[in-house]
Design brief:
Layout: E1 4-5, E2 21-32, E3 44-59, E4 69-73, E5 81-88, E6 93-98, H1 112-128, H2 131-138, E7 142-148, H3 156-161, H4 168-171, H5 194-209, H6 225-242, H7 249-256, E8 259-262, H8 282-285, E9 295-298, E10 305-311, H9 318-331, H10 333-363, H11 365-375, H12 383-386, H13 390-416, H14 423-433, E11 438-442, E12 451-457, H15 469-479, E13 486-491, E14 499-501, H16 503-511
Parallel strand pairs: 4-7
Antiparallel strand pairs: 1-6, 2-3, 2-14, 3-7, 3-8, 4-5, 5-6, 8-9, 10-12, 10-13, 11-12
Helix pairs in contact: 1-5, 1-6, 5-6, 5-7, 6-7, 9-10, 9-13, 10-11, 10-13, 14-15
Bound molecules: adenosine-5'-diphosphate and ligand DP6.
């Protein structure tokens, strides 16, 4: 067990009981920049999802005082509850000891994401608020409930059990935080970044609950030092728990929301990834530490567009795919450099084209809406020739760029012999992109068979009669025979990053029928 000492003298403290704390963080979709975003020379277009991960923290356990015990419950899953003892010693150190009953939980006896988040935030807390205050904050025991919106986990079983068709409108009939009746090891995850959203939500909830940061620190301003600290701590814990340092786009979007993301130099984590935990963590993670040189440019999709996500049959082993792509890149540096340069430039052009559409809406909302309503009734291949107006031309350009990016991703897959956009996904995407009002689509992140994303136009409210491209795309999905295509979240809102929630509201959600209390 690691332990940690305080920097402040043990003074008698006025005990002020902390009320409950609730925090949520969004999932992610990497629309463009897969593999390239591992290199700080390139950026990725990351959209935060409407699916969010929630952490709810309150004192006492099942309403009873439970000195220095922490129980973390994940009630959507079988055997997903972990308990720990916070250990304070006379020389002012703190440690976290997993309770014996965890080992009785079978395959879920340990959750490294949960355990490392608790342990490392306790170390940071004793550095920041001191031994006495931290002891008070845990002396009644803590009950922590962690839940993810349904889209993080495949709902196919839920839909079939309810006799509901596998369509977007059915998803709203499944209770929020629905019980999956399976273990975490067996659940089919949908690739929206549940671990990154979990870690960001749990770490932030603990930092707020232990008063290491204030709720006011959680603005979405990428320049906020408090938010940067939250980001750094969440990246540290996520990489520690995963045992690898990815690009970190998922934790960054969970923290700051949708963005153009350029990774931090991985060396910043080097001193923190060893067995030995540094005696002081704060200096490495503080928001003003310039070694954390990620670049975060707020981004949002254009107005009157909706991001549709579908969960496809099989999963993708991202670490294995990354390994094979980077190994090919090393074996053919010349060809890889050409491809990375062309693909990186096209990704940046797509980001600029989508941001330009938002600017065109701001410039003339009426003309923008009229153009979108018209394009809702046409397949994208007809857009460029249909009108010379700047909104039409801008959407035609965005569509063309997504198609060029798909071509480069297929080329990367061919050269590295990794199924990035395999033929089955190409056929599904081409069928979707032939529908009216579809701006573009592709395979998110590392690609493979995990999922597809489709960006569709939505008619203005004044033009309710306009055709719905979402329905046309959904018809392709429901009629698709080659693979099982299940709809996921689908929304227009560009989600904010990690934020404090009203604990009473979250508690009400957790009490609703259909949400199984364990
Ligand atoms: N509700 C939850 N409770 C506890 N742990 C969870 C929960 N959801 C996800 N996790 C952890 O995150 C891991 C999956 O993370 P990740 O690989 O990021 O999946 P994905 O990106 O497909 O959502 C799970 O194996 C589990 O350890
Ligand atoms: C390859 C990557 O650049 C993007 C992977 O994106 P995914 O969304 O596929 O990630 P997972 O949820 O872990 O499967 C690796 C990285 O950036 O870390």
């Amino acid at each position: 067990m690691s332990s940690r000492s305080s920097t402040s003298n043990p003074e008698p403290v006025v005990v002020e009981r902390a009320g409950p704390t609730a925090v949520s963080a969004p999932g992610k979709v990497l629309l463009a920049g897969g593999y390239l975003v591992l290199d700080p020379k390139y950026s990725g277009i990351v959209v935060s999802t409407s699916a969010r991960f929630y952490t709810f923290i309150r004192e006492r356990i099942d309403g009873q005082p439970a000195g220095q015990k922490i129980v973390v419950k994940s009630p959507q899953f079988l055997r997903a509850s972990w308990s720990y003892q916070v250990v304070f010693t006379k020389n002012g150190t703190v440690g976290l000891v997993p309770s014996v009953e965890n080992s009785l939980l079978g395959s879920e006896r340990k959750n490294k994401f949960v355990q490392l988040a608790l342990e490392r935030v306790l170390f940071l807390a004793i550095e920041k608020v001191g031994y006495q205050l931290l002891k008070v904050a845990t002396d009644q025991g803590l009950e922590i409930i962690i839940v993810g919106d349904n889209d993080f986990y495949s709902q196919r079983n839920q839909l079939s059990e309810r006799g509901l068709p596998n369509v977007i409108s059915s998803l709203a009939q499944i209770p929020q935080f629905a019980y999956t009746d399976c273990s975490l090891a067996d659940v089919h995850k949908t690739g929206l970044g549940s671990s990154a959203a979990l870690i960001t939500s749990l770490v932030t909830g603990l930092l707020v609950h232990f008063k290491v940061i204030g709720a006011a620190d959680l603005t979405d301003d990428p320049k906020s030092v408090g938010k940067a600290f939250v980001h750094n701590v969440a990246q540290y814990v996520h990489c520690l728990a995963q045992g690898k340092v990815g690009s970190g786009f998922d934790v960054s979007s969970a923290t700051f929301g949708s963005q153009l993301y350029t990774r931090f130099a991985p060396e910043v984590l080097q001193p923190l990834m060893g067995e030995q935990v540094p005696t002081k963590l704060q200096p490495f993670l503080i928001g003003t530490n310039a070694s954390w040189n990620q670049r975060i440019q707020p981004f949002k999709l254009p107005p009157q567009t909706s991001l549709m996500l579908a969960d496809v049959d099989a999963g993708t082993d991202t670490p294995a795919a990354v390994g094979r792509v980077l190994s090919w890149k090393k074996s053919d540096p010349q060809k890889a450099s050409e491809l990375w340069t062309q693909l990186g430039a096209t990704n940046d052009q797509l980001a600029a084209a989508l941001s330009n559409l938002t600017a065109l809406h701001t410039k003339n909302p009426a003309a923008y809406a009229a153009a979108v309503d018209r394009l809702c009734g046409q397949p994208p291949k007809q857009w460029a020739a249909s009108s010379k107006d700047e909104v039409t031309q801008a959407f035609a350009l965005a569509n063309k760029l997504t198609e060029v990016i798909r071509g480069y991703m297929r080329e990367m897959g061919r050269l590295s012999q990794v199924p990035i956009e395999p033929a089955e996904q190409t056929r599904l995407l081409d069928a979707c992109l032939a529908q009216n009002g579809v701006v573009g689509g592709g395979v998110p992140g590392a690609g493979g068979y995990d999922a597809i994303w489709i960006l569709t136009l939505t008619a203005s409210k004044a033009n309710a009669a306009a055709p719905s491209s979402m329905s046309e795309v959904e018809s392709v999905w429901t009629g698709w025979k080659e693979m099982n295509v299940s709809p996921l979240s689908c929304g227009e809102s560009m989600e904010r990053g990690v934020r404090v929630e009203n604990p009473e509201t979250v508690l009400e959600w957790l009490k609703k029928p259909g949400y199984v209390q364990h």
